[in-house]
Amino acid sequence: xxxxxxxxGPTRFYLFxxxxxxxxxxxxxxxxxRLAGEGHRTxxxxxxxxxxxxxxxxxxxxxxxxxAGERLWxxxxxxxxxxxxxxxxxxxxxxxxxSKAVLPALDRHLKLAVQAPxxxxxxxxxxxxxxxxxxxxxxxxxxxxxxxxGHTLRLLTLPSxxxxxxxxxxxxxxxxxxxxxxxxxxxxxxxxxxEDRVLVRLRQRAERFAExxxxxxxxxxxxxxxxxxxxxxxxxxxxxxxxxxxxxxxxALYVNRLWxxxxxxxxxxxxxxxxxxxxxEIRDRFAAFERVEVAQSARDIVGRHQLVDLAAxxxxxxxx
Length: 320
Ligand SMILES: Nc1ncnc2c1ncn2[C@@H]1O[C@H](COP(=O)(O)OP(=O)(O)OP(=O)(O)O)[C@@H](O)[C@H]1O
Ligand SMILES: [Mg+2]
What we know:
binds adenosine-5'-triphosphate, 320 residues, 13% strand, eight-stranded mixed beta sheet, binds magnesium ion, Rossmann fold, alpha/beta
């Protein structure tokens, strides 16, 4: 069975992923509330640009954890600001390594890199790996509102790809250093050998990623969120496929916003009939996984009161 959700130790990290608007932020917040209610010191990490979590928890949140309830902390990351800082870090490393003449070209390149697809996601994953080191310790559980896409997780967690990438860079840097060292010796400059800053940072990042990879396998669970509709079903199948080799376990699928089975009108009857067809397909096609089926509330879920209601409903519906 693909990525069966079975840890020897406790599950510490929860990642909610899915198409836009399916309810990742809402369900992640409710789940965090539920974990805190069960006695775990829980951190909710959101990347929602609309500050939905601040609204939901009725707490002004920022880039660092803020207390948001009993045993509950939350933070809102701005992925774009993060991507800029990430690229700036790379720029500083590179500046130390290249000659002044090529700096303007490097700058132009990095400006483009900030906007390149994938940069924001890589930066986010980098940030996630740092946040993961806070648990256990400051927190018992961490809930990530939006998981990086299956594609990104694949790129960053498959040891072969990441390992080859970092090793290649390291080999390149080592070669440059050796040449520079030889040059200095020939020139009679007897500078004490200081360890290359770029190499050190590369190695640290590689180690942090390797550790995150190990912990994503041993302590994390990925919850796909979907609706009983065609596009989210296909997206979910794709994510499960992409995650297959990454060793990240797949937990319960959250099938959100189900219509109530109240045949009050022909419209509702028709809507519910279609939903039931899709729901049957989801139960059948993803039979290998557990499921949490979440009824659509009559009202949008805004603010703490409704979130508490939803958290209680999840407690009734959830398999664990
Ligand atoms: N079970 C539910 N019942 C009623 N409304 C819901 C439910 N789940 C989510 N919603 C509403 O659906 C909307 C989208 O939810 P949410 O913001 O959690 O989605 P998201 O997947 O985080 O979106 P994005 O991809 O934009 O970050 C919100 O208005 C939310 O209140
Ligand atoms: Mg969201």
